[in-house]
Write a structure and sequence with these properties.
CATH architecture: Up-down Bundle
CATH topology: Ferritin
Strand content: under 5%
Number of helices: 7
Helix content: over 70%
Structural class: mainly alpha
C-alpha cells in the first residue's frame, strides 16, 4: 500500500473514532443522517448538548445578577463621594475636593467597566439561547467565548471574584466547541469570530458610555463651583 493510502486510512479511522465518540457521548443518531443534521438534532434534543448550553446561559445569568449587585454598590459609593466632593468644593477646600474628585473618577471608571461587561454578557446570553444548528456555532459560540475571555480580563480589577466563574463558563463552551470542531474538521475560532467579539465589546462600551453620561452628573470642581453653590 502506498504512503498516500496509509495516510488516508489513518484519517478515516480517526474520523470514525471521533464520530463514534460523538454519537455515544452526545446523542444517538441514524447512521444515514448527515453531520449537519446530527449536530442540529443534538443541539435541539433533550440530551446532552442542549443542557450544556442551557447550563452555560444559566451561569451567565448568575454573573449578570452579580454585576447588577456590584453596580448597585458602586452607585451608592458614587453618591456618597459625590456629596463629599460637592461639600469640599463649596468650602473651597481644593486639596480635599481634588482627592474626592480623583476617587469619584475611579469609581465611575469601575462602574463603566461593570456596565459594559453586563451589556456584553446579556448580548451573548441572548445569542446562546437561540443556538439550534451548526451554523449557529460559528456565528455565536466562538465570539461568545471571545467576549467571556475579554470580560474576564477586564473585570480583573473591578470584580476579581468573577474571574473564576467566567473562566469555568468559557472552558465549558470551549470544550463543547472543540468536540464539534474535532468531528467536523472545522476551526470555529476564526478571524471573523474574533472581530465579532470585538464588535460586541465595542457596542457594549458605547452603550455603557451613554448610560454613564445619563446617570452621573459632571464631577464637581472649582471651575464649576457655582453649579453646586445652592
Amino acid at each position: 500500500m502506498s504512503d498516500a493510502g496509509i495516510t488516508k486510512t489513518s484519517r478515516e479511522r480517526y474520523r470514525d473514532n471521533n464520530l463514534s465518540k460523538f454519537e455515544k457521548n452526545w446523542k444517538p443518531q441514524q447512521n444515514q443522517s448527515s453531520f449537519g443534521q446530527k449536530t442540529k438534532e443534538a443541539v435541539r434534543g433533550a440530551q446532552p448538548m442542549r443542557p450544556q448550553i442551557q447550563k452555560a446561559t444559566s451561569q451567565l445569568q448568575q454573573e449578570i445578577t452579580r454585576l447588577d449587585r456590584s453596580m448597585d454598590r458602586l452607585k451608592q459609593r458614587e453618591q456618597t463621594i459625590f456629596k463629599k466632593t460637592v461639600t469640599a468644593v463649596q468650602q473651597h477646600d481644593e486639596q480635599t475636593s481634588k482627592a474626592y474628585s480623583n476617587e469619584l473618577a475611579e469609581v465611575r471608571k469601575m462602574a463603566k467597566i461593570v456596565t459594559q461587561s453586563k451589556i456584553a454578557l446579556e448580548q451573548i446570553t441572548t445569542r446562546l439561547q437561540t443556538v439550534t444548528d451548526i451554523g449557529d456555532f460559528t456565528a455565536t459560540l466562538a465570539p461568545a467565548i471571545g467576549v467571556i475571555r475579554n470580560i474576564r480580563s477586564t473585570l480583573g480589577t473591578a470584580m476579581p471574584d468573577a474571574q473564576s466563574a467566567l473562566g469555568d463558563i468559557g472552558a465549558s463552551l470551549t470544550s463543547l466547541m472543540s468536540d464539534v470542531g474535532g468531528l467536523s474538521g472545522t476551526n470555529f475560532f476564526t478571524a471573523e469570530s474574533s472581530e465579532e467579539a470585538d464588535k460586541i465589546m465595542a457596542e457594549a462600551a458605547a452603550v455603557a458610555e451613554k448610560r454613564m453620561s445619563d446617570s452621573f452628573p459632571e464631577i464637581p470642581s472649582a471651575s464649576n463651583e457655582s453649579v453646586y453653590s445652592s
